[in-house]
Amino acid sequence: MPDKKERHIVISGFGGQGIILAGDILGKAATLYAHRHATMTQNYGPEARGGSCASQVIISGEEILFPYVAEPEILVCMSQEAYTKNIKTLRPGGTFLWDTDLVHMRKADMHLKAFNIPATRFAEELGTKMMANIVMLGFLSAVEALVPAEALKKAIADSVPAQTKDKNLHAFSKGREYGAAIVKEQAGHPD
């Protein structure tokens, strides 16, 4: 696992997508199972469901002195509003991940290091779109080495209702497999 001083991640979307849970799982995986430092802050609009929300996660091998992310190194967008609001904050050379069915990239942003997945569609195929956040975490884990996949699986198992654990772990695997295939394909076709 690369041990950069700090990795800054923003996961964004709208209320009801499990954006905050995704950030919580990522932070839990880093601290409890990968033995790293992590912070997670959240923000959301005044609406509970449907309003914009974001989870800011910092992962580090060292103590974290400031818990807020101003310029994410990794930006995950699961709604068009999240994309519009956050894309300009992505640091140069950063990685952008988005849900293909919910976010449409502007041509001006096509130069970014970007990966997309139909996370919501995959979750619906698995039985509930409520697991799109977990599909996206699996995808993220395949395209960016933040914490080991096993740490994320343990954090998911600890964070979701017991009766949905197996379905959520399957959703994680689905996203991870999709991401691994894209990374492999890109490695075989250098620009």
Mean pLDDT: 92
Kindly identify the CATH topology. Answer: Pyruvate-ferredoxin Oxidoreductase, domain 3
CATH class: Alpha Beta
User: In the residues, how many domains can be counted?
Assistant: 1
Number of strands: 6
Q: Name the poorly predicted regions.
A: none
Derived structural class: alpha/beta
Q: Work out the oligomeric state of the chains in this entry.
A: single chain
End-to-end C-alpha gap: 25 Å
Number of DSSP helical runs: 6
Characterize the largest beta sheet: strand count, sense, and whether it forms a barrel.
6 strands, mixed
CA radius of gyration: 15 Å
Helix % is 25-40%
Strands across the major sheet, in which order?
Answer: 2-3-1-4-5-6
Q: What percentage of the residues does DSSP assign to strands (E)? A: 15-25%
The CATH architecture classification is: 3-Layer(aba) Sandwich
Taken in chain order, the helices and strands follow as EHEEEHEEHHHH
Please identify which CATH superfamily we are dealing with.
Pyruvate-ferredoxin oxidoreductase, PFOR, domain III
